[in-house]
Amino acid sequence: MKNVLFAASEAVPFIKTGGLADVVGSLPACFQKEYFDVRVMIPKYNCMAQKYKDMLQYITNFYMEYNGQNTYVGIFKAEWDGVTYYFIDNEYYFSGNSPYTSDVKWDLERFIFFSRAVLSALPLIDFHPDIIHCHDWQTGLIPVYLHDSFSAGEFFRNMKSVITIHNLKFQGTWDVKTVKRFSGLSSYYFAPDKLEAYKDANVLKGGLVYADAITTVSRTYAEEIKTPFYGEKLDGLLRARDHDLRGIVNGIDYDSYNPETDTMLEKTYNQKNFRKEKIKNKRALQNQLGLERRDDAFMIGVVSRLTDQKGFDLIAYVMDELAQDDIQLVVLGTGEEKYENMFRHFDWKYNSKIRANIYYSEELSHRIYGSCDAFLMPSLFEPCGLSQLMALRYGTVPIVRETGGLKDTVEPYNEFEGTGTGFSFTNYNAHEMLGAIHYAHNVYVNHRREWNKIIDRAMQADFSWNVSALQYQEMYDWLMGW
Ligand code: ADP
Ligand code: GLC
Question: Are the beta carbons of 373 and 300 closer than 8 angstroms?
Answer without folding.
Answer: yes
